[in-house]
Amino acid sequence: MEAVRRLRKHPLDGLLRPERLPHLWCPGCGLGIALGAILRAVKRRIEEGYLQREKTAFIGGIGCSARASLYVDFDSAHTVHGRAIPFATGLKAVRPDMKVIVIGGDGDIAGIGGNHLMHAARRNIDLLVIMMNNMVYAMTGGQLAPTTPTGLYTTTTPYGNPERPINVVKLVATMGANYVARAAVTHPPLIERYVYKALGKKGFAFIEVISTCPEVFGRHIGMRDAVDLLNALRERVVVKQRPHIDESYYEWEGGKFVLGEYVDKDDPSYLERIGVIKG
Amino acid sequence: MARVEFINANLAIAEGVMAAGLRFFAGYPITPTSDLFEYLAVELPKRGGVVIQFEDEIASINAVIGASWGGAPAMTATSGPGFSLMLEGLSFAIMTETPLLLAYIMRADPSTGVPTKSTQADVFQARYGAHGNYEIPALVPWSAQEAYELGAKALWVAERLRVPTILLSDATLAHTFERVEFVPVRRAERKKPRVPPEEYRPYEPEDDLVPPMASFGEGYNVMVESLTHDERGYYAPTNEAHRRLIWRLVEKVRRNWRLIHDTKTYYMDDAEVAIYAYGSTARAAYAAVKELRREGLKVGLVRPTALWPFIDEDLKRAVGGARRVFVVENNIGLMYKEVARALRDKEVVSAPLIDLELPTPDQIIEVVKEWRR
Amino acid sequence: MRKEVLIFGRGGQGILLMGHVIGVAAAKHAGLYVTSTESYSSEMRGGESRSDLIIADSEEELDYVKVRNATDVIAMYPPRLGLYEHLIGEGALVQFDTSFNIPKDTLRPSWVKVGAPYTRIAEEELGTPRVANMVALGHFVRLTNFLGLEAVEAAIEEVVKKRWIEINKKALRRGYDLGGVEESLLR
Ligand SMILES: Cc1ncc(C[n+]2csc(CCOP(=O)(O)OP(=O)(O)O)c2C)c(N)n1
Ligand code: SF4
Known about the structure:
heterotrimer, A: Rossmann fold, 11 helices, B: Rossmann fold, Rossmann fold, 2 domains, seven-stranded mixed sheet, five-stranded mixed sheet, 37% helix, globular, binds thiamine diphosphate
């Protein structure tokens, strides 16, 4: 708090709603790192004249991650849990001139909203969806997420998660999205680069950002310390130029998170196909 | 003269909403709404609008909310099971004061019921189905012509009051073809901000309790907030802010009821007995009233064109001096509860006539005569 | 004027099309008010098929959406008359396709009973039983005299697929030429 008050000027000041700060994120949370990188990419696009501030919207569902849309000073929506993508689709369909960015957690985007994600990718609707994957339902206190690695402890899998995590990168790629990448809060410049790139794409663009939640994910796997958790993630991260899609599956124990751009193509987008925007 | 067509109530709704300025439709196919959807899929793009079939009803209503914030008059259409899925989104629209039209074409009864047939089982679901304290306008047509007119009006009400609005039709009307004249209707329009973006607060009401609405992309940096919020749209979990918001959402609809209601009366001038009926069932009641009149009974019909908000004074005016009121409906006697509450000084009789085909005039005549003895 | 028209037959006889053509003709081309419902059982061919039309010259005269006291009936499949007899009013004009058996016991004395072998005419003179409905409809126009032939032709042009328009109109006129009530009475 004190630190925030002392910080008079911040490079991203103009893009945040100062009256909404301080934010609700816990100390050491990875989400702030990710939002910073995202906004730097947006800012560059605005400065280059590619994006217009008043023609850019942030849409979130419900969750710690989805809160990002509350803190940014753009047209923004804090919708209901899981439904940010349909909201964004409706908005984009009637405002094709706008750049619509969805930010949400893995539960929001791939759990309760998984059906929408799959179909939005298949539709190749012109959106950028950024999924913060902290591998847990954080806001509600650390329950199992569909992305939780096998064997890990959460409040609703007290004997270890018997399920396999959903590979969202592969799912979205399979559904035909134009752009699919994975980044992590261990590598903020990568987040920035992918977001910058994705903002220039037509069709459905998807970026998974592996994030750290020391507060509830870390606590239940014995890594309550934010730095320990970040380091543990860093040890598991590999960056590749153009990874093969089969490298996208991850595990926590003995596994890797392969970061990189998995898909980058220019298939006709939904709005092109219905004639709302020119190809 | 305006164009005339021989169409069913579903297509009449589609024509009415297009005349009122509809620009976006999102839906998921369900009997008995699909022909409305399919018709718009052909016609709306020709008029510059967009129609999208979504993966389910949940996506559909949320896409409509997004489109509405994009500045487009927007709607969806569904029936029983689909409406159940839309309730979370409806509640979101209520909280964020998002104009949208939901055409609810009722079908018969719980679960999958009888998809092609109708009762009037969902009049309370339309009112109370979603979570939270709220009021919601629900208009209820009795003919294809009125489906055209009330479809347009419901979209107008939604935009004018910044509130999701329900048009409650049913499978019987969806399968009834009638002469429909495309009479001129009011264009749906929302109040726009009259202040520069720096001063604009997206949830600050004017005297009519309706806040002007800036859309996305207009430079107002609007905030759509599903949490309890203050006038700026910022989360405000205090009793004071919460009460202020909830009461305004409710009062906004109640106080502006004259923009929504238009209760019709037939043969009521000297009526001693009134039949209260709505939607398709009112068609049977109207036939029954005429026949009872021919037999010399002083019977009249009171027919609301909006069920919700329920306005006691409007009902009292319509019922006038009649002593006895029969509430005839194709369900287990739902609106009866409201009517009986509002007309405590009268004898109110419930006539719940569940009939997949529509109660018949003879059934209604029998009820009225039975009671006379 | 207020008419309650009931048309019934078997699936595949084009009953619903008859109702639809009458509706379009009345609403769009004859300046009348119409309400119409239809019902059919799920098996498309051979099952029940019925069209109800209430036609009036003012909107106030329309109320219940189904026929209760038919003033005009087209029985395209008379053997099933018994199913609908209770819906037919006294003095109704009941028009039969005499290609089929007529259940004599079901007939009421007050009805004006008219008809012709529509299906046979369609088969023998027009080459297909499928236009029997239009032969009957043409006869209906002549017998009831409240819809102009041009109105019904205009409706056919609007409702029927292009390549079937001519044959349907031909059938309609063939039915119209069957004559008025006097010439058509069944004895
Ligand atoms: C329909 C519905 N069900 C449940 C909830 C409760 N809920 C709020 S956030 C959340 C999970 C959040 O997890 P995630 O999307 O991964 O975001 P995170 O908090 O981890 O960033 C749940 C279950 C809700 N708001 N709505
Ligand atoms: S609970 Fe986890 S994800 Fe949520 S703010 Fe705290 S650290 Fe971040």
